[in-house]
Specification:
Elements: H1 13-21, H2 25-36, H3 39-56, H4 66-82, H5 91-100, H6 121-129, H7 133-144, H8 149-156, H9 160-178, H10 190-204, H11 212-221
């Protein structure tokens, strides 16, 4: 493609691009897959992300955190392709909710896997993709991509209290969407719901490799 001519402006920049970006391809693909809910749209988002990354790579300096930068690129690409992520409207309600609840300490809770062993992975993916954008973004970053809350704050440009309350609400909404497939109906407290969803995602949504046709096409672009 014509935009690849940018590499001619800086000797060896294509090899630098490969070294600093391709190592993050799988995590970007999984983010795209969880946000869009299907492989075709995820591939489309990845191609657009790398098209933009190639175009602007030479503007970066050696101190750049390439993973963070690539996530900014994919965020902008997602917004352009599928509509902007929610703005600050409604942040006050989220902040008020956080004032009413304490962030649940769920790391010590480990529910029996039989509670969710029969929930199909496809149903989980579909349920996550159907969440409101503000909730979906936070749960994908926090529970799937394992972003720290501080990095999620930076990505979403939202206060920490908002990120925490949206994660809380996202897990609760996801539980309701999957409730018919839950085998242990005694899960009733908010604490148990938060733990259930965190463990469910951790066990069921392991990172998937980027499909070979996507990897080959990107490699061909930067050959």
């Amino acid at each position: 493609p014509p935009f690849l001519a940018i590499f001619n402006k800086k000797t060896g920049s294509n090899s630098e691009f490969k070294k600093n970006t391709l190592q993050h391809l799988d995590i970007l693909y999984n983010f795209a897959l969880r946000m869009t809910g299907n492989e075709n749209e995820a591939g489309k988002l990845i191609f657009e992300t790398f098209r933009r990354a190639i175009r602007f790579f030479n503007m970066l300096d050696e101190e750049t955190d390439y993973k963070t930068w690539l996530f900014r690129v994919i965020k902008n690409a997602y917004e352009d392709l599928y509509g902007k992520l929610p703005d600050k409207k409604g942040l006050e309600n989220d902040e008020n909710l956080y004032e009413e609840i304490k962030e649940p300490d769920i790391d010590h809770l480990h529910l029996d896997k039989t509670a969710y062993k029969d929930i199909p992975k496809t149903e989980i993916v579909k349920a996550i993709a159907s969440l409101p954008e503000d909730l979906k973004t936070v749960i994908v970053l926090s529970d799937i991509e394992d972003f720290t809350k501080e990095k999620t704050v930076d990505f979403t440009d939202s206060p920490l209290s908002v990120v925490k309350s949206r994660l809380y609400k996202a897990r609760k909404m996801l539980f309701k969407k999957l409730y018919d497939d839950v085998k242990v109906k005694e899960i009733i407290t908010d604490l148990e719901i938060q733990s259930f969803i965190k463990n469910l995602i951790s066990d069921k949504l392991t990172q998937e490799p980027t499909p070979e046709h996507i990897r080959k096409k990107i490699a061909k672009w930067i050959k």
